[in-house]
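Exercise 7 asks you to align residues with tokens for two separate proteins.
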Amino acid sequence: MFKLSTSFFLLSSSFLLSILFISFPVISLAETLEETLEKTVLEKIQQTRVLKAGFRSDAAPFSYISSETNQLEGYSVELVKLIHKRLEQKLSKSIKLELQEVSLENRFQLIQNGKIDIVCAATTINNRREEIVDFSIPFFTTGIQFLVRKTDVERFDPMRGTTGKVSIGFLAGSTTDEEFRPIYPNANWQSISNRAEGISQLGHGKIDAVASDGILLLGEIRVQNKTISEFELIPKIPFTFENYGCILPLQNPDWDKLVDTTIASDENTQLLHQWFDPEKGKFPYESFR
């Protein structure tokens, strides 16, 4: 009887010790994860010394791969570099800028789960999106227009409404898809993978128009080195007014403030002139406000 009790005691003690050794690391790991999630963007960057910024490679003139240099270029790329520089000044330390490609489909999720800290791309600010992420103050204003062949301008009159015979290319997941496409339900809407594909189909007569933000359509024509006089944006005044902002994580007022003050700075005003001045800019554009 005594031997049985002793064995039981030893087994029970061993079991308890096993539980203790197993439990403590799990609890510690959970606490570490919780602490990481609770850190603000600036606290995380200060600790890791890395700023993770998302970019798109198909959104000229904001971010695109140059056919000449095969390097990432664009106004948004320069804006992020400016934000990075001011971040280093604020934290008084060297910070690595890490760029990660994002898409229309995953850009918001990557911000939400903390994989990246900022996306400054051609992203329209709207109420629905502001429920899941924060936005900076606007850095650019454009609007949805139709890109058509010059020879089709008179035939294709969007102000009279489209018909079933008109084929329009659009990007799934964009504001054109979510908010503008339902206005013309009778058109033959054709999903395209990117604006380059849409412009190619337009040039070959496979579709009648491409619907997107005017600046992005002009940017793609320039990147492809196509003759811009062969196309026209209609109507002259866009159907909508789209304010672009940087996507930011929710509830990070200090990070928001740093990004907003950078966008409002004289340095960024100079960048905007360099890229978009109607006469001397790399991508001349008459912005709408």
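Second protein for Exercise 7:
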Amino acid sequence: MKRQKKIAVINDFSGFGRCSLTVSIPIISAMKIQCCAVPTAILSNHTGYEDYFFDDYTDKMKNYYMKWEKLGLKFDGIYTGFLGSEKQAKIVEDFIERFSDENTVVTVDPAMADNGKTYATIDEKLCREMKNLIPLADIITPNLTEACILTDTAYHADEYSINEIAEIAEKLEKMGAEKIVITGIVKGENICNFICDGDKRKLIEYRIAGKSHAGTGDVFASIISADAVNGVDFEISVRKSAEFVGKCVELSNEMEVPVQDGVCFEEILDLLM
């Protein structure tokens, strides 16, 4: 009998704004995998808006997933995204140790920063603790700023050379990550992803689709995580994820969706089915 695969997704739940769990649940489900949510916080809408309700779930997380341990649950994949504190990063380490085995694909999206700056809620302690998740990951999906932070590489605003990016990727590989995609690399009028997978080193370029929207990193990493569990080749998965995000951005701009509202992936979700 065919067994349905399961991915545990550790991220916040924002009721409005299309990011985090509200992105991962429909996308992973559309890719025929059961998405099992572990909330790190509950928000009315993400913090890119002027005002929001916020309920920190840190002290509830372990009680929440210990019930899963009593059920004897194991997962084909574990995907972890935005974390709110050093304590949450340690909780994620514990979760991975409890619920993974040699067949579990662990994807870490170290969502901490962009455009050379950390997010408002990210401090040095969390950045240091995030480094401890890298050896536990099979796949990591940092953007260029996050890759610099993880490797203690000074970030600069000028265009990066392929050699500079390759050096950063190799540092991440030495930290223990098996498969790496560094996203958000700007090269002229193109946006690029750099893949590091064993002996493969490749820069993949795309035309910038339009104004950047919230939550596109969550869309990208959700597809990567689901594809990994489904056994899709890593480069093929990266190309597919980037192309889907690009289509979402183009459509959202055509529909004049405000950037903080995320991308209207629902309109083309059937492309992933």
